[in-house]
Amino acid sequence: MRRRTLIAVPTTVMALGMVLGGGAVAAPAKGGGAERAGACPEKMIFEVGGHRDGNATAYDASNARLPAGVQFTKIKYSASIAPFPGDTISKDDSVREGIEKLDREVRGFHGACPGSRITITGYSQGAIVAGDELHRLSQENTIPHDLINGVLYGDPRRPGVNGGPGGIEGNLPTIIPGLSMNGPRGFGDLRVQEICKKNDGICHSENPITNLLGFANGVAGYFMGDHGYDIEPNAENGSGDRLIDQPPRVPHGPPLPIPVATPWKQFNGDLPTARREMGAYRDGLVNALPKELRERMAEFPWMSVPAS
């Protein structure tokens, strides 16, 4: 069976993704063979790519390995994070667009194939979209929860585990309208697997107040490829948090043993204070980064502190 709305163009996967777009495309798994019209797959995987990967090309390699009975639907959206250089659509608007399209596709598929299992997966910015949709579905019973699972790679809203660092959206405060830092969210009784690398400052963001060098390590890791993942959502069916250990990019020790909350907890919602404090942390961050990365801060919009 082939479900189709718009056509996505496959390319190679990059750590931050490529390509802008808008819509969704569904296709049968390679090796699945032709299915009779009207037949439903055992499972549909709904895929959302990261920044500048509006065609979800990060999933192309894993899609080529899907077994019979498993199909995929790519959610096509703008995948933009202005003020990242060249982007014109804000993160908030882009995420909202992605959620609306994902929600429509998931509900439409379940209405047509009520017995089929559903996997919702996202990478990076796409993990915000996929995770927010999973959170929404966990709060209702429109689709039975035992039919749903999620797989999130490099999720900016990943909760911290056992007091450890979580995603950047629960660490830094909002300093630019349209680039809202919304904190962590939960998934109720849904099976959702969070996958994160220790050097990935998008999903594992150290408190810059208590561990500036640890925070810098995450930013360096983001620039140096540690935000890239081996994407294989069909192989994941569990839940919880998987933190992949790595040798650091920037040498650092543990956080200072003092009870200081993250900037997000302290300053989010107070824009003037947030901008002032983040400006100071940015100065320290730049000094802590390797020299070759210091000129790339425009590519890290979460700390693009507006000029006063």
The percent of residues in helical segments reads 10-25%
Largest sheet: 7 strands, mixed
Report how far apart the termini are: 56 Å
Number of helices: 6
How many β strands by DSSP?
A: 7
What is the topology, as strand order, of the major beta sheet?
A: 1-3-2-4-5-6-7
Task: Please characterize this protein's 3D structure.
- By secondary structure, the protein is of the alpha/beta class.
- The longest helix is centred in the N-terminal third of the chain and has 22 residues.
What is shown here, in short?
This protein has 308 residues and is of the alpha/beta class. Helices cover 24% and strands 14% of the residues.
